[in-house]
Amino acid sequence: SSPVPVAPVAASRRMKERQRLDYRNKLILAPMVRVGTLPMRLLALEMGADIVYTEELVDLKLLKSIRRLNPALGTVDFVDPSDGTIIFRTCSQETSRLVLQMGTSDAQRALAVARLLERDIAGLDINMGCPKEFSIKGGMGAALLGDPDKAADILHTLCSNLDIPVTCKIRILPDVGATVRLVEKLAGTGIAAIGIHARTRDERPQHRPHPDVLRAVAEAVSIPIIANGGSRDMHQHEDLRRFQAECGADSVMVARAAQLNVSIFRAQGLLPIDELIEKYLRLCVDYDNAPHNAKYCVQSILRELQETPRGKRFLQCQTLQQICEIWHLGDYCRRKQKELQTLGNSGRAKVEPPEAMAKRRKLEAAANAIADEYSGVICRNMPFLRSTYANNHLPKTQLYVHAGRTGKSPPGYVTQQCDKLFRAICSYDGQRFSSSFWEKNKKQAEQGAALVALLHLGQLEEEALRENGSLIN
For the whole model, what pTM was predicted? Predict the structure, then answer.
């Protein structure tokens, strides 16, 4: 698709007509890396969140992105032109309640990015609390707590030039008075609200939060205070407002408790885990979410259930289709992906990060180099998923037994290696079989080749293999 033309005057008029985001008395999904992507944000809104934040997005990455409409998905995508990866994806269902959190250390750069984004979001938040090394080294996140003048300059520049409300998210300082003075300084820049994590930059989730510090801040300033950091005591919906009240805050922002079960926003109570995962996966399919991102979020929901047989099978999954099969959404995933392709969506599967692209090129080169060896080989794309076999009746064993039963010579295997990955050819009864899926070790590659042979020989059902994720195409 072609870049979306910019119409600044019309866009500005539409923004001024939009109802301004109000940060008082709200339940808010906190900015969380890898969690706050589009499917989870939409699910949080469905569950009862009033406002949702994106994961932190760094200004430099956004600045080089190109804004494109994606008619197939009904989304607006911000795409990295160097490799096609999607930096930020949003849709109209969330626009009026979406806050983008930006990582920045430069006022003018932040403003340039904000102007690129402001028609597609309801608010902009500047991360001034992240204690991670990456943020601090770049002068972002919690590093700004140590440079209040720079922090205030960034906020003032944004507030003076944007039509959407600007906020920031900080952590408390070790001293209550210093925290109050910092918030007063930041509040003076014109920000619409301030999110405060009730721990210092050196404290971690195992440390108790300090709601008394937030109460002192709330009494000192008139802008809305958004309390964050209470997840350790948030087990049900009522706990959200309880933490808000303890902090004397106007609103409450939920991070880890929502990552573990986003239905904590639901006033009617928590949903069963499987129902929650099914809802989440449908959104992942609908909005072509990256499989590794979907897997990370489902892992967070499953927690100790990853150790069950089904959980172990899930951990073997590498595609969204495979994940969906486990929650009986395989047909939905296949149908939706075909529909999206018909509408012209190229798919996240075709958009890879640079490392993945480099690895894929290596594998393609390796496949080309051994193309002659694969001439006449019957190939299918079949990963070997160890957890789908409850006992030791593995594909190689099944094929060996089949050979003995039919009076044939036992199968033989030859493997090829590329960049710590393996493929194998299984020779059996005058034919050769291989899986085009590169495996992590030689043994798994041989099992994959045996799987292809068993399928071709009619010893396995194609539909059953699709359902358990062993047959990709």
Answer: 0.77
